[in-house]
Design a protein that fits this description.
There is one protein chain. The protein contains 14 helices and 13 strands. It is an alpha/beta fold. The strands form 3 sheets. Strands 6-5-13-12-11-10-9-8-7 form a 9-stranded parallel beta sheet. The protein has a two-stranded antiparallel ribbon with strand order 1-2. Strand 5, helix 2 and strand 6 form a beta-alpha-beta unit. It is globular and about 55 Å long.
């Protein structure tokens, strides 16, 4: 197994070429997994397109602020995610030159289709932000009208916009007209249970030229409490012809298949279910796309992937920011591999990249 030349910079080997077996640092279980998915592409029963882009499958990674950075997107893609979205980008031009924004704008370094999410409430600023991201390499622009965070909603952005359908239309039309790449939209079922207007918003989206619509099965008022409901996603699917993607509480392959069957949605978007479990995509793609039950990775493979992920965080952000961000990912990973571990407390006290890696290696050798 050899890495194609274009992917030497990608430590997770999203794209590979099958050939005579060759030992290398990249000759790992994630790479073998990528090869297996590559071989199965021709057998996918349902093809999903967003605009002129054909996705490798219909299982997507949700945009999540502070989480779906380049290292995390790459590892999810390696485990089979058909499309990954960057973290939410503000439309405020005053913050575009901050270090945080610059890292999120590094789209040309990504493999695959580069999908970027933007959030805001001013139609002209949203259009300008879309144009800037396209200049940096974005191939799909996603508009956030689903975020329930107060700091976002106070600026009349995110799910707060669902209260103002006319403003929704103005924003969507402005962004669609401003760029030549496909524009998608992510929403919730409504502002609250008394005002579930996702069908109305979906029709506006379709009329405005939106190429795909993701719906989280909760209202803004529900935040992430209770269980997601999928009835309104099914209603939307029955009312529009653009691809509809179901989101919310997708935590297993069986749940993903059940939601697709129940809603008739064209695809599934996984968010919090992938935290500490990027390999979830492997089992979901296996069951949904290939009707196969794929066993979870071995503990050895998981440990290898975790170490590589942490190394990539250190590289991408630099040591100080990298080791801080690594802490939350380790907390999520531990929930999957050893939920009762007290190692998290010890790990959070470490203040260097080398100390984190050494501690992880020792910990993994004992479990």
């Amino acid at each position: 197994m050899l890495i194609s030349q274009d992917d030497q910079k990608n430590p997770f080997c999203i794209k590979i070429t099958l050939c005579k077996r060759s030992k290398s640092a990249y000759d790992s279980a994630p790479c073998r997994l990528a090869a297996e998915f590559g071989q199965m592409v021709g057998n996918v029963g349902v093809v999903m397109r967003i605009g002129h882009y054909q996705l490798k499958n219909r299982i997507l990674l949700a945009p999540m602020a502070g989480i779906t950075d380049q290292p995390f997107r790459r590892i999810c893609a390696t485990y089979g995610a058909g499309l990954t979205f960057s973290e939410m980008m503000s439309t405020n031009p005053q913050v575009w030159h901050t270090e945080k924004s610059k890292l999120r704008l590094a789209h040309h370094q990504d493999a695959g289709i580069n999908a970027v999410q933007i959030a805001g409430s001013d139609p002209d600023e949203m259009a300008q932000a879309a144009q800037v991201n396209v200049e940096y390499g974005a191939q799909i622009i996603d508009i956030n009208m689903g975020c329930p965070a107060k700091k976002v909603n106070r600026k009349m952005a995110g799910s707060a916009l669902l209260q103002y359908p006319q403003l929704v239309r103005q924003i969507l039309e402005s962004v669609v007209k401003s760029v030549e790449v496909p524009v998608t939209l992510k929403i919730r079922t409504g502002w609250d249970v008394e005002n579930r207007n996702c069908v109305e918003i979906a029709k506006i989206a379709e009329q405005s030229g939106i190429q795909a619509l993701t719906i989280h099965g909760r209202t803004r008022a529900c935040k992430f409490e209770g269980e997601a409901e999928y009835e309104h996603i099914r209603l939307v699917k029955q009312q529009v012809t653009i691809p509809v993607i179901a989101n919310g509480d997708i935590t297993s392959a069986q749940k993903a298949k059940a939601v697709l069957d129940d809603t008739g949605a064209d695809g599934i978007m996984i968010g919090r279910g992938a935290l500490g479990r990027p390999w979830l995509f492997q089992s979901v793609v296996g069951l949904v796309e290939h009707h196969s039950i794929i066993k979870a990775p071995s503990l050895e493979e998981k440990c290898r992937v975790i170490l590589q992920h942490i190394r990539e965080l250190h590289r991408f952000y630099g040591e100080e920011k990298g080791y801080r961000i690594a802490r939350k990912h380790i907390a999520w990973y531990l929930q999957d591999i050893q939920p009762d571990s007290v190692f998290k407390q010890d790990f959070n006290a470490l203040t260097s990249a080398s100390a984190q890696l050494s501690a992880l290696e020792r910990f993994f050798s004992l479990i």
